[in-house]
């Protein structure tokens, strides 16, 4: 794979990541705050739709922070009392994340990221797989959110990458 193709792949993956998060977030918002805050069960990573979206925000935030050289000691996301309160900080974070991804060069993929987890344990990993981790991690939690929404009100629209590509290319 050429360097230009790898950059395009990462940028496209993050475009998809933002689209899928927003598509599901809009469906959840339409349910209303009461349903988005309803405890759906301990079988999920987080028991409410609102808290699950807070976690998605927090994961994007902590990884971007790490890539930029800081290691937060606390994962953000639990502080949001409503879905509506997540949107503005997430919009700002998406802009910052997009700028970071757009500024990447092929040499950045091999850059070693030194960071500590929230407990202070140090790690060193190359940026390339970490860039893949964030959208992959979100796919897991979006599937949980989709299941939660299905339990509450019916199946949400597809957020698969194929649906995104067909929409983006006008083939939907």
Number of strands: 2
Question: How far apart lie the N and C ends?
Answer: 29 Å
Could you name the ranges where pLDDT drops below 50 across 5 or more consecutive residues?
none
Largest sheet: 2 strands, antiparallel
Q: What average pLDDT do the residues reach?
A: 96
Count of DSSP helices?
Answer: 6
Helix and strand sequence: HHHHEEHH
Going by helix content, strand content and strand pairing, the class is mainly alpha
Task: Name the shape in a single word.
Answer: globular
**Major beta sheet, strand line-up:** 1-2
Sheet-strand content, in percent, reads: 5-15%
Rounded radius of gyration (Å):
17 Å
Q: State the share of residues found in helices, binned by percent.
A: 55-70%
Q: Could you characterize what this model shows?
A:
- The chain is mostly helical and 172 residues long.
- 62% of the residues lie in helices and 6% in strands.
- It has six helices and two strands, in the order ααααββαα.
- It has helices at 3-31, 33-36, 49-67, 84-103, 127-152, 161-168, and strands at residues 112-116, 122-126.
- Strands 1-2 form a two-stranded antiparallel ribbon.
- Strand 1 (112-116) and strand 2 (122-126) form a beta hairpin.
- Helix 1 (3-31) packs parallel to helix 5.
- The longest helix is centred in the N-terminal third of the chain and has 29 residues, at 3-31.
- The chain is globular and about 45 Å long.
- The chain starts with a helix and ends with a helix.
- 24% of the residues are buried.
């Amino acid at each position: 794979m050429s360097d230009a193709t790898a950059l395009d792949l990462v940028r496209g993956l993050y475009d998809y990541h933002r689209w899928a998060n927003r598509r599901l977030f809009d469906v959840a918002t339409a349910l209303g705050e009461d349903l988005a805050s309803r405890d759906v069960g301990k079988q999920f990573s987080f028991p409410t739709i609102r808290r699950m979206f807070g976690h998605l925000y927090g994961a994007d935030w902590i990884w971007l922070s790490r890539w930029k050289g800081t290691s937060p000691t606390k994962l953000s996301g639990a502080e949001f009392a409503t879905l509506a309160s997540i949107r503005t900080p997430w919009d700002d974070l998406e802009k910052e994340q997009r700028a970071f991804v757009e500024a990447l060069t092929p040499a950045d993929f091999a850059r070693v990221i030194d960071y500590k987890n929230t407990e202070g344990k140090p790690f060193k990993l190359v940026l390339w797989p970490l860039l893949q981790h964030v959208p992959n991690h979100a796919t897991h939690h979006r599937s949980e959110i989709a299941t939660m929404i299905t339990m509450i009100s019916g199946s949400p629209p597809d957020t698969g990458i194929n649906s995104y590509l067909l929409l983006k290319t006008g083939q939907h």
